[in-house]
Amino acid sequence: MTDERIVHIHGLIQDWLSFVNDPKPATEENLSRLDHVLDLLALSRHSLEDVGRIIAEDGQDPPGWSDQATLRKSIATRFPMLGFYNIPADVTSNFSNATLHLGDAIDDLLDITNELLQVKWLIENNLPGDASWNFAFTYDHHWRYHLRSLQWYLEMRRFEST
């Protein structure tokens, strides 16, 4: 992994945190920026090697997730127009008979933010290998689902509003 990639990821995380933590409520126009940053985060994951090939420093573990209630309230205040949405339980099977799950855009934003805060901590504590591994692994096994579900929700909000 090159240093440029981790510097780029750090910049994206900084942009994400600045955007999500802005105290002013987001507008509908801000949601196109959110969609754009989600794309950039996914592309950054794809610029990294397979998790098995990333060498971690085996250093300190990042601190635990922050106060979830406070962070969730802050995100909900920032994005008052976002809420719950439907997710089909089955997409590639059980056609026409799939049940629905409940998605939560605020929870999606919260989970992505928490994962990125850990990567930021690793970068800022000079553990770029651990940061790369953490970014790739947690994307692959957790927040990719939140990112893709949130993108789908944003797209359907646009589509259904016309």
Describe how the helices and strands are arranged.
Elements: H1 3-20, H2 30-46, H3 68-78, E1 84-88, E2 100-104, H4 105-124, H5 128-160
Antiparallel strand pairs: 1-2
What this model shows, in words?
- The protein is 61% helix and 6% strand.
- By secondary structure, it is mostly helical.
- The chain has a single domain, classed as Up-down Bundle (Four Helix Bundle (Hemerythrin (Met), subunit A)).
- The model has no long low-confidence stretch (mean pLDDT 87).
Task: Supply Rg.
Answer: 17 Å
- What is the CATH architecture term? Up-down Bundle
Unreliable stretches covering 5 or more consecutive residues: none
State the share of residues found in helices, binned by percent.
55-70%
The total count of strands amounts to 2
Strand content is 5-15%
Shape: globular
- CATH class value: Mainly Alpha
- Alpha carbon gap, first and last residue: 44 Å
The neighbouring-strand order within the major sheet is 1-2
CATH topology (level 3) name: Four Helix Bundle (Hemerythrin (Met), subunit A)
Q: What is the helix tally? A: 5
> Which structural category fits the helices and strands?
mainly alpha
CATH superfamily: Protein of unknown function DUF5063
